[in-house]
Amino acid sequence: MIYPELYILRHGQTVWNAEDRMQGWLNSPLTPKGQMDAARQGEILRCIDLEGFEFWSSPSGRAVQTAGIACGPLAEAVHTDIRLREIGVGDWAGRLRADLPQGTGDDPYLEQYEMAPNGEGLAAVETRCRAFLSEVVRPTVLITHGITSRVIRSIVIGPAALENSDIHGGQGCVYHLKGGVQKLLT
């Protein structure tokens, strides 16, 4: 499938990111660094002609707060869609990662999302992201989360989108996806 041009932002650093807690569908506010991350994303976007673009955000407070800082001066409206929220981590929401079982494979950090009791799982995130993307017909700016961004970028670009990708990355930068190519804007 061919997708319209996308710019993807991950929300800025939150209090729980700084504490290394699992957030999932719960929320934690942006830290001062997180507010600076969002401001930096806004600086990047101001250098781009976004005429005709739609703006969509996860409804989670941290994403909406990031959208307000980064996109508020640029967007006539920022719409929300629950399909852009972060992966659900079930019983592990709010818990410190260090207190949870660790994965043993190539990416133990990512494995924790699959191990979370009553969690959503990556396959379910992919299903809802594909449903959202099937409705995107115009160039779009997305404000979302780390795992959701990874899944969207993998759907649009393929596995190459995640090569050399830091799971913690994305705060303070913007991913540009166009014509099957991903560029990291910093």
Briefly, what CATH class?
Alpha Beta
Shape: globular
Which homologous superfamily in CATH is the superfamily? Phosphoglycerate mutase-like
**What ranges have pLDDT less than 50 throughout 5 or more consecutive residues?**
none
- Structural class of the secondary structure composition? alpha/beta
Number of helices: 6
Strand tally: 6
Proportion of strand residues: 5-15%
SSE order in H/E notation? EHHEHEHHEHEE
Instruction: Measure the end-to-end span.
Output: 28 Å
CATH architecture: 3-Layer(aba) Sandwich
Helical content, roughly? 25-40%
CATH topology: Rossmann fold
Mean pLDDT: 95
The rounded Rg comes to 15 Å
Query: Biggest sheet: strands side by side, in what order?
Result: 3-2-4-1-5-6
The largest β sheet comes out as:
6 strands, mixed
Count of individual domains:
1
